[in-house]
């Protein structure tokens, strides 16, 4: 099915001067202004913007809980820094390779998935990634609402009376806090990726300054001395196994983001911007993060022999109400920033990919947010079965997905991509395969997904569970390379003729 060039864009200012010949092959079932390639001229994401993505995401509350947990597991200061350094080095490589794909093609993750899975088969990875993200969007909003409840009670102690009942599993104050944060995020996202870019740029310095200040305050409270180890510190082989396992888990935490990093780098000004942003934001920023973790955990242990679980534990003990409020606000700003980038953007593009004729960025954002609300995420978070089996199972499949997509792009096609054919249903299109599905990729995913799920849930494989993301990604790549059609020819065609101007 073809369409006239003027029909390709239904939003003012999004797609001027689309080439008529290229537009004739574009299918409206695969194309809308949010899925279309971004024109190179006018892209806005600089190295600083990419750095601020990581300035926010690396310093998330979940990451602090993970890293502080390493202290509790018996790793000392230098071992924790080594864990984060090794993980950061791996992530720098993986995220740069993933980011280059977006910079070259200008398309979001669901469209990128069409290369290896086919124009219709791409719904599989897009829906898996989107489902994980929507659930975590709701859960992270709930966790942020807990911080907001603390803040509200600190400012108005009488509000504590609203925190004693339960309506669908949440108190009245809990509902007020959750809905308030839900509305804030919906408003931000309704203005598109450009507003997300500006918010991330604002939030990055705020959280860095806050966490450094919190570390200095803790250090002063501990008489400028910290405990580098605990009495239960590991040594020898056990220590090194924990270091390597911790580094692997650190990479696995970003297993979702390495898949859809192209959602952001499609707007990058150049590959150099991606490399610079990733370098300052991943390995170097992670070492700063590690220094803060070691200071917070070590200072608290020096003070009273207690191992904290998260920065929020320290914030609650800040004696000055004004400082407590400022710290809590910073944590809220951070959590919203992380949620927007990690859990809101992916389902928006996944829904756009499912219904390109009917949805745009704003509508898809609202639908994603509503789903994140109606699933009552606090009940999901408090259900080990849901977290471990549903979200854990979907998360385990992300490793094989990454391996398949990266192997196809870099090793089979050697980055030779026909961007125009990503948007056509013509049977002669390069990514039509068999009725729009590349069964070779689907078979590789099924085989390696089974292996990944076994590693995630079968006790006998517990010894390698920490490395499950790497093993899954490696297996996905190897199996796909064994079954892939390497005959080609693979063509490299720019998407500029059907690209839209960057408003992202």
Automatic annotation (TrEMBL):
Membrane topology designation: Multi-pass membrane protein
Q: Which residues cross the membrane?
A: 66-95, 130-155, 167-189, 201-219, 239-262, 274-301, 321-351, 363-381, 387-412, 441-461, 467-484
**What keywords are assigned to this protein?**
Membrane, Transmembrane, Transmembrane helix
Q: Which family does it belong to?
A: Belongs to the purine-cytosine permease (2.A.39) family.
Q: Which Pfam families match?
A: Transp_cyt_pur
> Do the record's keywords include Transmembrane?
yes
Example GO molecular function: nucleobase transmembrane transporter activity
**CC annotations in GO:** plasma membrane
List the protein's name: Nitrate reductase
Q: Which CDD domains match?
A: SLC-NCS1sbd_u1
Localization per record: Membrane
The record's InterPro entries line, in alphabetical order, gives:
Pur-cyt_permease, Uracil/uridine/allantoin_perm
């Amino acid at each position: 099915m073809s369409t006239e060039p003027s029909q390709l864009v239904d939003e003012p200012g999004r797609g001027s001067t689309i080439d008529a010949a290229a537009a004739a092959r574009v299918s409206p079932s695969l194309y809308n202004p949010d899925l279309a390639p971004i024109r190179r001229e006018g892209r806005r994401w600089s190295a600083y913007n990419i750095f601020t993505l990581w300035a926010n995401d690396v310093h998330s509350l979940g990451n602090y809980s993970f890293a502080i947990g390493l202290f509790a597991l018996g790793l000392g200061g230098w071992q924790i820094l080594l864990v984060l350094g090794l993980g950061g080095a791996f992530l720098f490589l993986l995220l740069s390779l993933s980011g280059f794909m977006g910079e070259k093609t200008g398309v979001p993750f669901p469209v990128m998935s069409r290369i290896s899975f086919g124009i219709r088969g791409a719904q599989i990875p897009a829906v898996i990634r989107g489902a994980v993200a929507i659930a975590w969007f709701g859960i992270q909003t709930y966790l942020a609402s807990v911080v907001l409840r603390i803040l509200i009670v600190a400012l108005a102690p009488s509000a504590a009376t609203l925190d004693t009942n339960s309506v669908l599993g949440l108190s009245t104050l809990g509902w007020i806090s959750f809905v308030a944060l839900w509305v804030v995020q919906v408003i931000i996202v309704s203005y598109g990726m450009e507003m997300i870019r500006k918010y991330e740029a604002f939030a990055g310095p705020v959280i860095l300054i806050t966490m450094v200040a919190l570390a200095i305050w803790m250090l002063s409270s501990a008489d400028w001395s910290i405990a580098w180890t605990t009495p239960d510190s590991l040594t020898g082989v056990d220590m090194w196994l924990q270091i390597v396992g911790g580094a692997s888990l650190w990479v696995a935490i970003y297993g979702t983001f390495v898949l859809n990093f192209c959602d952001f780098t499609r707007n990058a000004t150049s590959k150099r911007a991606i490399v610079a942003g990733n370098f300052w934001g991943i390995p170097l920023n992670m070492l700063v993060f590690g220094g803060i973790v070691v200071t917070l955990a070590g200072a608290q242990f020096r003070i009273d022999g207690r191992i904290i679980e998260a920065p929020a534990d320290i914030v609650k003990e800040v004696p000055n109400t004004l400082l407590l409020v400022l710290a809590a606000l910073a944590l809220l700003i951070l959590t919203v920033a992380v949620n927007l980038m990690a859990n809101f953007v992916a389902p928006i593009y996944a829904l756009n990919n499912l219904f390109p004729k009917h949805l745009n960025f704003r509508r898809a954002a609202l639908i994603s947010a509503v789903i994140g609300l109606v699933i009552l995420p606090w009940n999901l978070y408090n259900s080990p079965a849901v977290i471990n089996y549903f979200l854990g199972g979907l998360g385990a499949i992300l490793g094989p997905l990454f391996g398949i997509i990266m192997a196809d792009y870099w090793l089979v096609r050697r980055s030779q991509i026909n961007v125009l054919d990503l948007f056509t249903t013509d049977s002669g299109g390069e990514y039509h395969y068999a009725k729009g599905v590349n069964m070779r990729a689907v078979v590789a995913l099924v085989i390696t997904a089974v292996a990944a799920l076994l590693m995630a849930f079968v006790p006998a494989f517990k010894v390698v569970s920490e490395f499950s993301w790497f093993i899954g990604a490696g297996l996905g790549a190897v199996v796909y390379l064994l079954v892939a059609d390497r005959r080609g020819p693979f063509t490299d065609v720019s998407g500029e003729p059907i690209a839209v101007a960057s408003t992202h």
